[in-house]
Design goal:
The protein has one domain: MetI-like fold (Orthogonal Bundle). The longest helix has about 35 residues. Helix 2 crosses helix 10, helix 6 runs antiparallel to helix 8 and helix 8 packs antiparallel against helix 10. With about 250 residues, the protein is mostly helical. The radius of gyration is 22 Å and the shape is globular. Helices cover about 80% and strands about 0% of the residues.
């Protein structure tokens, strides 16, 4: 685990270094205000505290956290229902397959009309993105549990709760985390887009507001902060996965 962590850390630093070098070369070639140097942008970040950047980041964090939480909880119980009870599968499977391919951004006007311009519509959009992925992951994980696992617990007269705690729930955890990892980047992208409507706070609003004012240094600094925020979420998710899925440590 330690060696793997060191390799990931070194790989991350190399990737960031390569990105900054390519960015600096692009700045030198273009020599335009549209693409300031990475050094100028990094120096600009401390001054953004005067522009309430922490409030923007806090608002975006709140929306992402609630959206992911609702989607994870709802997707878990819905997937558990579909995987455990066949009669629910016949109802929800066609519904998910019918609605999943729909571009969720096409639903934004409807969500904003029904939920207003506040946090509710933005959180709802995140839920719409993440919920189907979590639901499908949990459903498939439950269906793939070998039936003989439950037979052993029935022989020792284990309760339904013991079967759920020791078999079903651990089997669904990798699927939940994998679905969250896949959906997180899309959720941040959707949040960025929705924060351009009906709000004055959020990283999406800050970045686009800086762009309209042609404050390109603040715009790129905001993009870096949003990227760093996304990276932090992915790292926390990996750490949580390593902590909660203890049985996978020996196989990773």
């Amino acid at each position: 685990m330690k060696k793997d962590g060191v390799k990931r850390l070194l790989g991350g630093f190399l990737a960031i270094g390569l990105f900054l070098i390519v960015w600096w070369i692009g700045h030198q070639v273009l020599q335009k205000p549209l693409l300031p140097s990475p050094i100028e942008v990094l120096k600009r970040i401390p001054s953004l505290y005067e522009k309430e950047i922490l409030i923007h980041l806090q608002v975006s964090s709140y929306r992402i956290f609630l959206g992911m939480l609702y989607a994870l909880v709802g997707g878990f119980f819905l997937g558990l229902l579909m995987g455990s009870l066949p009669k629910w599968k016949y109802f929800f499977d066609p519904l998910i397959y019918l609605t999943y391919p729909i571009p969720k951004m096409a639903l934004l006007p409807i969500v904003m009309l029904l939920g207003g311009l506040g946090d509710g519509s933005k959180i709802t959009m995140i839920v719409l993105i993440v919920l189907p992925q979590i639901t499908i992951s949990v459903r498939d994980a439950v269906r793939n549990i070998p039936s003989n696992y439950y037979d052993v617990y029935r022989l020792i007269q284990a309760s339904k709760w013991q079967q759920f705690r020791n078999i079903t729930f651990p089997a669904t955890l990798p699927g939940i985390i994998s679905g969250a990892r896949v959906s997180l980047g899309t959720a941040i992208s959707i949040l960025f887009f929705t924060e351009n409507y009906g709000t004055e706070y959020g990283m999406g609003y800050f970045i686009m507001d800086s762009w309209t004012r042609m404050d390109y240094g603040a715009m790129y600094a905001g993009i870096l902060i949003l990227s760093g925020f996304g990276l932090l979420l992915f790292l926390l998710l990996d750490l949580f996965s390593w902590w909660i899925c203890k049985w996978q440590r020996t196989t990773d």
